[in-house]
Amino acid sequence: MLAFRPFGTRTFLGAVLSPIVIATRESRLALWQAEHVQQLLQARGHAVSLLGMTTRGDQILDKSLSKVGGKGLFVKELELALEEGRADIAVHSLKDVPMDLPDGFVLACVLEREDPRDALVSPRYASLDELPQGAVVGTSSLRRVVLLRALRPDLRIEPLRGNLDTRLRKLDEGQYDAIVLAAAGLKRLGLEARIRVAFDPDTMLPAAGQGALGIEVRADRADLIALLGTLAHPRDWLATAAERAVSRAMGGSCSMPLAAHARWQPDGALRIDAAWGDPEGRATLVRVDARAEVADLSQAGTLGEHAAGLLREAGAR
Fold it and tell me: Among 63, 101, 221, 272, which is disulfide-ready with 262 (CB 3.0 to 4.6 Å)?
């Protein structure tokens, strides 16, 4: 884990090669994210170009991620571009980044977080409560499946894969009565009007890192690590680090129905809520919370590990 002083400054170590090349997936949302980082770096005087790539996760659309290799399918090709020197940095939606990066790679920073909530999107129904009995709801997230079942066990939950535009098209074609998406992606693409309701996190607990962007680099790029540290949002980095520590301690992947969401409290402590559900529906939803004073990434990790321990004590597997 990176040493990190959340409210300090970083010393710039040497000159960064120019132009900086960003490896990115080619979906509209991924390109928005990469272009956002490009603009931030250009504002600091750096020339930046994009290297668009198609990942295995983008190609395999007929199977759930939990059955074909997990979220790492969205980052492997980007990491190969970093390893081969074709790109300098990779911009990821943090919730899609595996909890343990391969040797030789680090998360250089986490940017300011967008709305972390889940959103209900439907052409006909204004809320989850308005959906009729047996309505078809689309999602391929096991986390969302178990949380939706806890709220509305009568719903028919069907798989939904593809990029954001593809998912919305399937909804508009009538394949689903409603779908559940990350609010952040809709807002970033100017599609906030499609949101019928953004779920309160206490109702639908978000995924670890949801709404945040992370930037990955090779561990030997001290120049880039120093530069990218200036883009970091300290409090959001600590909060998402605690969330990811829950998932890491639980062996988390997209094959595990796990939620974790951390929020700063008025007294300055960081509170984390975590939930685990049985995808087969044979066990009740387990939910816990923990809080601590957190000033660095190590303490954030300790808080997340404590929450994971509470989940296991309450029956999570």
Answer: 272
Q: Is 172 in the active site? A: no
* Single-letter amino acid code for the residue at 293: E
- Rounded CA-CA distance 4/127 in Å is 41
Ramachandran angles phi, psi of 200, nearest 5°:
-60, 135
Active-site residue identified among 58, 96, 115, 118: 96
Q: What is the pLDDT of residues 1-12, one digit of tens each?
A: 444 444 333 334
Cα 77–Cα 297–Cα 240 angle in degrees, nearest 5: 60
Residues pairing with 276 in the sheet? 258, 286
Phi and psi at residue 121, in whole multiples of 5°? -120, 125
pTM of the model as a whole: 0.88
Q: Which amino acid appears at position 21 of this protein? A: V
pLDDT at 23 exceeding the cut of 50: yes
DSSP element (H, E) containing 53: strand 48-53
Q: What angle do CA 94, 169, 159 make, to 5 degrees?
A: 60
Structure tokens at 18: 């120019």
Asked if 275 and 286 touch (Cβ cutoff 8 Å), the reply is yes
Please state, in angstroms and rounded to a whole number, the distance separating the CA atoms of residues 59 and 246.
Answer: 29
Mean pLDDT of all residues in 34-44? 97
DSSP three-state, residue 106: strand
Tell me phi and psi for residue 189, to 5 degrees: -95, 15
CA distance linking residue 95 with residue 240, whole number of Å: 9
For 16-46, b where at least 16 C-beta lie within 10 A, e where not — what string? beeebbbbbbebebbbebbbebbeebeeeee
Write the single-letter amino acid at 286: V
Sheet holding 286-292, edge to edge: 258-264, 270-276, 286-292
